[in-house]
Structure formats: structure tokens, C-alpha cells
TrEMBL record:
UniProt cross-references to SMART domains, sorted A to Z: ANK
Keywords: ANK repeat, Repeat
Spans of repeat ANK: 31-51
Gene3D superfamilies cross-referenced by the UniProt entry: Ankyrin repeat-containing domain
Protein name, entry field: KLTH0A06248p
SUPFAM superfamilies, alphabetized: Ankyrin repeat
Length: 202
């Protein structure tokens, strides 16, 4: 056990023990990963607040060896909100690849709520995806039809997609969440289509 694992597990008392023995909130492992990164990554908000407040006073904008801040490691909107609105985090900071936390999240295509929140605080609008409202509605109808009529399958990707759609349609805001899901699908396809040309340029 070390301070980084303890922070990842949200074990505040154990983290405090390590801090009392000479570690700091910004102590780095060989990859530059700090307890603050760990707490942010796993959504341990109370521990994150503690590490960034007196007497530990760690910086919520601390960077690892890749230049990633705790916000780059964040996986949920609530933690990001605390980082930016309470602890003085900066959403404009970029890592060694020149990417903001939002850019990293959009590339991964996961954590839709986090992406929407970061877009909001960044003042960034949805980029045009080359589909109009009628096509978007058709996408929605097709996905609903697939969910209701496709036979069960053992394919892991199909199972994961079905579970995601069921989660969206049973959620509190299915129309918006479904639209965001479709946008992410289209965006991922556009990135995949661009990838060969990018490789040829290198």
C-alpha cells in the first residue's frame, strides 16, 4: 500500500498517515501521478478537497509527467465541478500533447455528462457533424428499433451497446442523452475516417 493507492481507494485516514510521515499532496510516483490526481480520477471529492486545502494545500492544477492535470484524469461531472468551481482548477490548461481535459474526454468518447459540463464551462458549442435534424431523428428511430427488435447476441460490443441504449432510454433525460450518444457515434466515425490520412501525412 502507498499514498497513491490509498488516495485512489478514497482511504482518507491512510492518506493522512502517509502525509504525516513526510509525503505531500503533490508527491509524485514515477509517472508524476499525485494523490490529487488519484482522488480526482476516482471521484473522491471530500479527499480531493482535503488535499487541496490547508494544511496540505496541494495545487489542483498539478501536472503529471504527461502534463495531465487532475481534471484530465477526471471521469465525472461532479468531480470536475468541484475542481473548477471550488478549488480553482483551470479548464484551459493543456497537456504535453497540447490537449485540454475536454479534448481528451472527447477523444475517449466516454463520460457524456463530463463532456457536456466541460463544453459548457469552456463556452464551446457542439461542432457540426454533417447531419441535419431529420437525419438525427432517423438515427434515433433506428436505434430504438434495433433495441426493440434485434435478437439477443453474445457479441460483447453488441451487449455493451444494448446496455448503453437501455440506460439512456430509462434515464431522466432520454432525448438529450440519446442525441449526445448519436453525436459521439458520428464523431468517433469521423475520427476513424480521418485516421488513415493523418498517418499518411506523418
Amino acid at each position: 500500500m502507498n499514498i497513491w493507492i490509498a488516495a485512489s481507494d478514497g482511504r482518507a485516514e491512510l492518506v493522512e498517515k502517509f502525509l504525516s510521515e513526510g509525503f505531500t499532496a503533490e508527491s509524485k510516483d514515477p509517472n508524476g501521478y499525485t494523490p490529487i490526481h488519484a482522488a480526482a480520477s476516482y471521484g473522491h471529492i471530500d479527499l480531493l478537497r482535503e488535499l487541496c486545502s490547508a494544511p496540505y494545500s496541494g495545487s489542483v492544477n498539478v501536472r503529471d509527467n504527461d502534463g495531465d492535470t487532475p481534471l484530465h484524469h477526471c471521469e465525472d461531472a461532479n468531480t470536475a465541478r468541484v475542481i473548477l468551481e471550488e478549488l480553482g482548477g483551470d479548464a484551459k490548461l493543456t497537456n504535453n500533447e497540447g490537449k485540454t481535459a475536454l479534448a481528451v474526454c472527447e477523444e475517449d468518447g466516454e463520460f457524456t455528462d463530463l463532456i457536456q459540463y466541460l463544453r459548457g464551462v469552456s463556452g464551446q458549442q457542439e461542432e457540426p457533424l454533417g447531419i441535419d435534424s431529420e437525419q438525427l431523428a432517423q438515427f434515433k428511430d433506428n436505434l430504438r428499433y434495433t433495441l426493440e427488435n434485434d435478437p439477443e447476441t453474445d457479441d460483447p460490443q453488441s451487449i455493451e451497446r444494448r446496455q448503453k441504449l437501455e440506460q439512456i432510454l430509462n434515464g431522466g433525460n432520454p432525448e438529450q442523452d440519446l442525441e449526445n450518444y448519436i453525436r459521439d457515434l458520428v464523431r468517433s466515425q469521423l475520427l476513424a475516417d480521418d485516421e488513415p490520412s493523418k498517418r499518411r501525412k506523418d
